Structure formats: C-alpha cells, structure tokens
Amino acid sequence: MIINRIKAGLFALLFCIGPAIAQIYPQDQDLYVNDYADLLDHAQEAQLRDRLRRFRADDGVEFTVLTINAMSDYGHSGAIEPFATGLFNAWGIGDIDRNDGLLLLVSRNDRELRIEVGAGYGSTLSAPMQRIIDDAIVPQFRRDAYADGIAAGVDAVIAHVTGNIEPQPFVEKVGEKAKEFIVFVIAGVVSILILAANFGRKLYRRLRRNAPRNCPVDGSRLRKYLEETEDEQLSSGQIAEEHLASVDHDVWFCATCDHIEIESYKAFFTKFGACRECGYNTVTGKSHVIRHATYSSSGLRETYYNCRHCHAGYSVTATIPQKTRSSSSGSRGGGRSSGGGASGRW
C-alpha cells in the first residue's frame, strides 16, 4: 500500500513538473530586438534598435522587443502572461536593483501580445500599458501593419515611462492635422516632380525614336514599320517582350535596298528581367528564405525564376549575411518581473 502511494505521488509530481521541464524560451541574441517572426524589414529593425538603444543610453531603462511565430514552438500551450513573465526573468531584462526592464512580446500566429514590466513598477503601469495596447498597437495589427504597431507601441511606452506627457486633445489634434498637411504637401510635390521627370524622359525618348535617320547602306531615308505590321520582322522573344511591355521595339526599313534596323527600348518600370537561357527580358523571380541569418551563422535565400518566353525554370541561391551586433550593445542587467503589465489580442 505504501509503495503504491509513493508511486502515485511520484507520478503526480512528474505530471506537474513535466510542462516546466518542456518549457523553453527563444534564444536571447540581441539586447534590443529579436524579430523571430520576421515582422520587420532590415531598415525597420535597425531604426527600432536605434530607438531602444538611445532610450537605454539616455534614461538607463532596458526595453526589449521580441516577436515569435507561436508560443507552442517553445513548448507553451497556455496564456501569454506566464510565458512572458518566465521569459522576462529567464533573460533578466532590466537593472537587477531597480527591476525597471520592459518587454514587448508579439506572438503572431497566436494573435496575442503582451507588455511585461519589471517588478520595480509594481502595478502602476498595468492600466497605461493596456491603453497603449488597445489604442496604439492593436488597431495597426488588425490591418497587418505590424511594424507600425510595434513602433507606435514602443514610442508610447517610452513617452509614458519617461514622463513625456501626451499633449492635450486640442493641441494634439491640431498638431496631427498640421503634420498630415505637411506630409500631404510634400507627397504632392514629390509626385509632381516624379511625373514631370517621367514625362520629360518619355518626351525625349519619343523625339529621339521618331527622329529622321538614313540607311547606312545607300543613304536613303529610312521608314518605320507600323506597330501592327512590325511583328513579322521581330523574333519570338522580341514579340514576347512587347506583349509583356518589358521592351518596346521599333523596326526601320529602307525601301531602296531592303535594309532592316531594329531599335529596342527597355521599359522604365518593369518586373521582368533578362532570362539566363534565352536572354530576353521575359523572366520573373520569386524569393523565399531557406535559412534565416543569425548572429552565429549566415542565412540562405532561394529565388526561383520562370521565363514567359522559353519557359525555362531555374533557381538561384544567395547567402544572407550573418547578423552583427553593435559593440555598444552591452549585456542584460539581471532584472525580474513579478507579472505586471498588460496583454491584448487582435
């Protein structure tokens, strides 16, 4: 009887500690941004890292952003709160004495996020962090603007923690309208300049293309085929280029000696490149990452190309450079969280 009770107790103990043993956390590779869900492009990640680095340098607060695909990838099947608290403490975010660290955790496929705060804040940040999640982050996430939501959330958290009080509603509204107007004016001016430059290039090209020219054989004036009749002088690849609007071809002929000249003009904006098999601008490529780059190894990207003319299909692999750390990144301070913060879903 005693042996059976001992066996039952051991089984219960193993059942209870099993999840804890299975629980792992993402690798802590960067002090500021660990984007394992690839929600940020390179420029966005660098900008965010610089923002968090300046925050730590100016105010002494360690703020980390972590994105993952799913908590289940790390053996967790429950709520996001215990996962975030455990991860916070495993990484040791924040100063060990002040316990003032901050963590923004985004689990993309779970569609959950949490702002975990250090134990030094107590419960004082729970309500403000909830407002930031509801007002600044979730609306952006719901339209798949993850980078915008993360940036807005980080800015709002930093503003609150540093005491940079948000402007009064009227002032804020006027300021936002002014910024919107300035952005609208700048965008309008840039658009006009782009249109003018494009129009100028097209006008110059048209004048040059239609300029009179003489036959290099007998000196007679060349004539240009009409678009409707020039295909008989073009190769199948050139015809394909014209159908795809990647290259436009002009065919000039001499009525005296039957000399033919073909002049080609590549489109200013086209998604088609030159095929390595047939040489015509009729190929498109689609890339995917085979292996993501880390701070310890390079990554690998594969691009599959498909030609719309010769129907060749081939793939090319390229190395993604290994990530590098800034020499000023430093190390974590050993802070802890007691579970304070706020969570949200989208």
What features would you highlight for this structure?
346 residues, alpha+beta, Diaminopimelate Epimerase, Chain A, domain 1, 4 domains, 5-stranded mixed beta sheet, 4-stranded antiparallel beta sheet, elongated
List the helices and strands and how they pair.
Blueprint: H1 2-22, E1 33-35, H2 42-59, E2 63-68, H3 80-91, E3 102-107, E4 112-117, H4 126-141, H5 146-161, H6 169-209, E5 223-224, H7 236-243, E6 247-253, E7 260-266, E8 273-274, E9 281-291, E10 299-307, E11 313-320, E12 341-345
Parallel strand pairs: 1-2, 2-3
Antiparallel strand pairs: 3-4, 4-12, 5-6, 6-7, 8-9, 9-10, 10-11
Helix pairs in contact: 2-5, 4-5
Number of helices: 7
Mean pLDDT: 85
Stretches with pLDDT under 50, minimum 5 residues: 10-22, 167-172
The largest sheet is: 5 strands, mixed
Alpha-carbon distance between the termini?
53 Å
Spatial arrangement of strands, main beta sheet: 1-2-3-4-12
Q: Which bin fits the share of residues in helices?
A: 25-40%
Structural class category: alpha+beta
Strand elements, count: 12
Give the SSE string: HEHEHEEHHHEHEEEEEEE
- Strand content of the residues, in percent? 15-25%
Mind telling me which CATH architecture of the largest domain this is? Roll
Overall radius of gyration: 31 Å
- Kindly provide the name of the CATH class of the largest domain: Alpha Beta
Please give the domain count. 4
C-alpha geometry: elongated
CATH topology of the largest domain: Diaminopimelate Epimerase, Chain A, domain 1
InterPro entries: TPM_dom
Signal peptide: 1-22
Biased composition (Gly residues): 331-346
Transmembrane segments: 181-200
